[in-house]
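Q: Here's a chain of 146 amino acids. Please give me its 3D structure as tokens.
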Amino acid sequence: MAIRQIRIDEDPILRKKSRVIEEIDEKIKTLNDDMVETMNKAEGVGLAAPQVGILKRLFVIDVGDGPMTFINPTIISTEGEEEDEEACLSLPEQSGLVKRPESLVVEATDLDGTVFQLFCSDLLARAVCHELDHLDGILFIDRVEK
């Protein structure tokens, strides 16, 4: 495993849309492991592949229960809305209030190639939305309430 450089601020890769992962091979598994290690070292809650310079639809999240991997994620449903403070490893020393769903169901694939659906609420729901935005070239500052 290796610590990868986190892309910051105006890096153009952060504004590009990521590509679907067609095959979960050793390269993807290594990327995943490196992303978990990088996220942990940076003391983050989540990290998306574009943040380490890779335009693939993959992100990792750890809200305290251990790291979770989401490959080709899609939000199936949402419920409610809440506004809370967000920050980002790619935008150091910036934060702002962002409205996100209170809860959601996300569908994704894990590292074994198994498709799963997961009900998420609170911080996990917020993190899923935040990281999924990264895969579409959207940063939280685009959603900050003006």
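Q: Can you summarize the key feature?
A: The mean pLDDT is 97.
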